[in-house]
Give the backbone structure.
Amino acid sequence: MNKSTKNSVTLVLICLLSVLTAVIYTENVNEPLNRGYECRLSDQRCSFDGDLGSLRVTFEQPPEIEEELIIDFYFSANILLKRAWVEGDNMYMGKTPVVPENSTDEALKLNSIDALNSFKGIIFLGSCTEPLMKWNLFVEMENSTTKEKRIYRISFDTNSM
């Protein structure tokens, strides 16, 4: 093979690899959530009931920026809270993890109440120049028996100061 042919083959392989990478990225990163796992915060709470179990999320106070927010999670005894985090929807604020209140080295401190597990977490929302900031709270749950996972999304708004 001459040098021109080698360069052409190399260029074609690079193009194919780029297209394949873009397809894999789009399939895995931009996967939409099932509408059954989305909720708009109303009266400071959202509830989900489904095949994985039940989940109730309650904000102890109305969400405000630059204030400590306490969130209560109540969920079926057969499911585990794997992780929870907040992301900005109409602005890039990164991922803010929900951390356990009275944090210790334990990953997630659970309490058992009437066949439900509970978890109390804290977040702190930053502020930006957007007058109406839109947020998403993501909660990843797993069935302890089947290991099936779901990510729930709770959307809410805050006003900038």
